[in-house]
Amino acid sequence: MANRYSVYSTTSSTAPAPRSTRQPAAQVSTTTLLNTLHAIYSSGQSYQLDSGTALTVNTWLTAASPGPNGEVGGSVDAELARRAWEHARRRAEDGCIVLCSSHRSTPSLLAPFLARLPLSTPSTTYTALSALRPFIAQVTPYNPSQFRCSALAVSYTFTLTGNVTAVSLSLSTAGLDVSSGLLNIPAEAGYRAFDVFYYLLTSASTPAEREFLSLKDASAYSLLNKSNTFNPPAYLPTADDAASAEDFRAALKAIGIKGASHRNFITILAALLKLAPRIVPQVMKALAGGPLGLMRKRVTLLESQSLRFQIQR
């Protein structure tokens, strides 16, 4: 099909839902803006800047606490999701929603936003995101799950009636910040490497796996002991690496990484922990062709920086 792109039009959108915060018609002062941000943060609501842009205030605390309507994961603008879908459907052209963050304590809003879309997102999409997250997220003093990828996208292909025919995940070809997430973790308390390495070393690994791979405590690996932080952050009392590792293994199995593929996968992770200090120049290539290479066999990767709609006709 031919793709047609246009600026978001007011004719293909409906009037925004009423909100408690008044939208100014002209430039506002810093004090007014800060007061507005505080109001939407306290109420868990979004602030519409224009027909195609909305602002929400989120931290790891808002992601861990239920919202005003019982939703979890953080505050998102469900009305913006609906308008984007209506715009794409009515004009029969591709649509794009970009989720941006402006501070280091921002949680990932991708999964919560997918849940607000007026589309039937397959459950395997969330499973794949759960399997991918430990590869690209790490614990920091400011965020229990800070993403280190330059971009992550979800693309939908659906009919004009809203029937989803395909969903794909996309990691930017710019790759991961392996330096911050593995090779050069700050020597400060509160920092950890990518979550996947700690999941490998938990009790979720079978005795046979631990013996075959000669797995040790996290403190025995030079890549992991720089910050002397090996456990989940204390400000999340319910966080548990062993339980998360079990969920991670279940997600991998659900998307087809099991048996020989799973053995190869954990072997690569163990090898990175042992050999990476000696072969630093090759680690980037190993990550791309190893664990994440296995993921590429299970999901379709596209070069993208946003959640995209694709109209099929």
From TrEMBL:
The protein's Enzyme Commission number: 2.4.1.16
Region of interest (Disordered), residue spans: 1-27
Catalytic activity: [(1->4)-N-acetyl-beta-D-glucosaminyl](n) + UDP-N-acetyl-alpha-D-glucosamine = [(1->4)-N-acetyl-beta-D-glucosaminyl](n+1) + UDP + H(+)
Protein name, entry field: chitin synthase
Subcellular compartments: Cell membrane
Low complexity composition bias: residue spans: 9-22
Extent of the signal sequence: none
Record's keyword annotation contains ATP-binding: no
Enzyme type, top EC level: transferase
Membrane topology, from the record: Multi-pass membrane protein
Record-linked InterPro entries: P-loop_NTPase
Primary localization: membrane
Record-level Gene Ontology MF annotations: chitin synthase activity
Keyword annotations: Cell membrane, Glycoprotein, Glycosyltransferase, Membrane, Transferase, Transmembrane, Transmembrane helix
Organism field: Ajellomyces capsulatus (strain H143)
SUPFAM superfamilies linked: P-loop containing nucleoside triphosphate hydrolases (SSF52540)
